[in-house]
Each structure stands twice: as structure tokens, then as C-alpha cells.
Design brief:
Elements lengths: L2 H11 L4 H8 L4 H11 L7 H14 L8 E5 L5 E5 L1 H10 L3 E11 L2 E11 L6 E6 H4 L4 H5 L1 H18 L7 H8 L11 H9 L7 H12 L38 H28 L5 H9 L1 H13 L1 H16 L1
Antiparallel strand pairs: 1-2, 3-4, 4-5
């Protein structure tokens, strides 16, 4: 065999790049295809490896990122999370060769919709697969849930049933991604107080369990009038370098006996009261949507109790309002 023939044989065995494959599918040059996706459906700084993984998911499920059937958002803990829009879920369900139709059933108590059941049929099964999603568990205090609660619940039922019926994995819908991003993080905090306060101020509407974990950090760091050892781990008024960059723990500062240090302590105390009021208002608004187990957890959690103690010390009227809202949620 000649050298030329040998070279041809080697070239034929080389795998085709997923970027070349996907860009060719849509008639685009690989470089332009990558630049377009990074600018439209990839949020944040996505590495080459993460971008390749994103394309592999799109290829596996036959989804078109160009028509917003699939997105790539940063995931907690690093990497990316492929997010499939409702149009994308409908695509992969209908394109599955074993799909043989689906149907929905509303579950009501009087005029109130309490759940939706989705049933899917497979050509190779004699019985249907079904999943029921409940409004009390799924509803959130967001604009889309307030505007289209029935539609959103129907989507949740369809997506969960599709997972059972066809084993779809590694992908979530936008609503699930938002829930994952607000889920409680039990890893130690390594950012400064300024970053924590800014994160709370920019939080999404509704109860944020992540904030509850942070609130006790803020409470524990509250300044005391008779000891300097209780000064906050990071003082934004006196430490301009604390912009939230990660570092190995919030180290306690040297003892500060200056007048400026006392002023900063007073500012922190005021900030604590304001944060506690905001926390109480958000919790009162979300209590009607919490399950009994979640309410019970609120009443026994050490961090919640500490936050409530601060509320009672700063605004007794608001504390009583919160107690009444908890009682009403338990009875409802």
C-alpha cells in the first residue's frame, strides 16, 4: 500500500468535530456558528470544553440552539447547565420514535385547580406512563406563575412525565433552573459582607432559601457595644478592597477603637434591621405557597429562629404579623 493510500485511510478514521457537525447541519461556518451561539444562547464565560458539551447535548436530543430550543447557563459549582425551553421539550417528545400521544387531566377541588396529571403512551408499552404535579408544590411567586399558573403546571406535568416515559436526563426547563439557582447552598461562605448584601438586594422575587443561610452569617457578625471581638468579618465602610472576590474566609479585623469604627458599627446595626424587615416581608408573601413540611422546618431551624429573634428585638409589630402569617399558613 502506498503512502498516499495509508494517509487516506488514517484520515477516514478521524472523528468529526461536534462543532463542524452542528455548524454543517445549519449551513454555517464553524467559527461563525460558535460566535453566534456564544452571543445568543450561552450566558457567562463558557469554556471551549463546556461549549463542546453543550453542543453534544443539542446533538443528542436533536435540538436547535438557533431557535432557542436549548440554552447554556452557568451551573452552581462550575460548568454549565443545558436548559431546554418548552418548545424544545415538545420537540424531543414528539421526535421520539416510541411516542404515541399524550393527554392531560385536571384535578380540581370545587373551582380550584390543585393538580394536573399527564399521561404518555409508548408504542412498545401496553400501559401508559403518568405523572401528577401539584399546584401547592410547584407554584412560585414569579410573574409567569402569577399570570399563567395553569399553563405552567401543565408544562411541569408534561416534562416530568416525559422523563419517566423516555428517560430524558441531563436537561432542565427554565423554571427548574431558577429553582436550582435559589436552592440552599450549605457550603461555607467565602465572600465578604458587601457581596452578601448586594446579592440579597439583587435577589429574585419570592422566598430565597439561600438568603436564609446568609442571614445568620450577618446576624452572627453584628457588632456589639461592649466587645470588639464581635465586629463583622468584613467591614465595607472601612475595607474598600472587599468587593466580593473569594478568599479563604472572612478574617476578623484588628481591634478598631477609632470614631470611624464606631460609626461603621452603627451603620451595620441599621443595615441588620432593614435586612430583617425585608426578610420578614418576603417570608410573609411566600408562606401561602409553602408545604406543611417547609413551614415546620422554618419553625425549628436554628438560623430561622435567630433571624426571628432579631426581628422581635427591632420591630415587635412585624414579628407578630409574621407569627400570624405562619399560623394562618399552617391552618390553611
Amino acid at each position: 500500500m502506498t503512502d498516499a493510500a495509508t494517509n487516506i485511510a488514517v484520515i477516514e478514521r478521524q472523528p468529526r468535530s461536534v462543532l463542524v457537525d452542528m455548524s454543517g447541519r445549519y449551513g454555517m461556518e464553524p467559527t461563525a456558528f460558535e460566535a453566534t451561539l456564544r452571543a445568543t444562547v450561552c450566558k457567562g464565560n463558557v469554556s471551549r470544553e463546556e461549549f463542546a458539551a453543550f453542543l453534544l447535548v443539542a446533538k443528542e436530543y436533536g435540538l436547535n440552539p438557533m431557535t432557542k430550543e436549548l440554552y447554556a447557563f452557568p451551573a452552581k459549582g462550575g460548568g454549565i447547565q443545558p436548559i431546554v425551553s418548552i418548545d424544545g421539550w415538545a420537540r424531543i417528545i414528539n421526535d421520539h420514535p416510541m411516542f404515541d400521544g399524550m393527554e392531560f387531566e385536571d384535578v380540581r377541588e370545587g373551582d380550584d385547580l390543585i393538580a394536573i396529571t399527564c399521561r404518555m403512551h409508548r408504542k412498545d408499552r401496553s400501559r401508559s406512563i403518568e405523572a401528577t404535579e401539584y399546584m401547592a408544590e410547584c407554584r412560585r411567586s414569579t410573574d409567569v406563575w402569577k399570570t399563567w399558573p395553569r399553563r405552567m403546571l401543565r408544562h411541569k406535568a408534561m416534562i416530568q412525565c416525559a422523563r419517566y416515559a423516555f428517560g430524558f436526563s441531563g436537561i432542565v426547563d427554565p423554571d427548574e433552573y431558577e429553582r436550582m439557582e435559589t436552592a440552599r447552598d450549605v457550603t461555607p461562605r467565602t465572600t465578604g459582607m458587601r457581596a452578601r448584601l448586594e446579592a440579597r438586594a439583587a435577589g429574585a422575587d419570592g422566598f430565597d432559601p439561600d438568603q436564609v443561610a446568609n442571614d445568620l452569617n450577618h446576624f452572627d457578625a453584628a457588632p456589639s457595644s461592649d466587645t470588639a471581638s464581635n465586629k463583622p468579618a468584613s467591614d465595607p465602610a472601612s475595607d474598600p478592597s472587599d468587593a466580593g472576590d473569594p478568599f479563604p474566609g472572612d478574617l476578623p479585623p484588628a481591634e478598631d477603637t477609632t470614631a470611624s469604627g464606631a460609626e461603621a458599627d452603627a451603620d451595620e446595626g441599621t443595615s441588620l434591621a432593614v435586612d430583617t424587615m425585608a426578610w420578614a416581608d418576603r417570608l410573609i408573601a411566600d408562606l401561602p405557597f409553602l408545604r406543611p413540611a417547609q413551614i415546620e422546618a422554618l419553625e425549628t431551624d436554628r438560623k430561622e429562629l435567630a433571624k426571628f429573634a432579631v426581628l422581635k428585638a427591632t420591630d415587635m409589630a412585624k414579628a407578630r404579623e409574621l407569627e400570624g402569617a405562619i399560623q394562618a399558613a399552617k391552618e390553611g
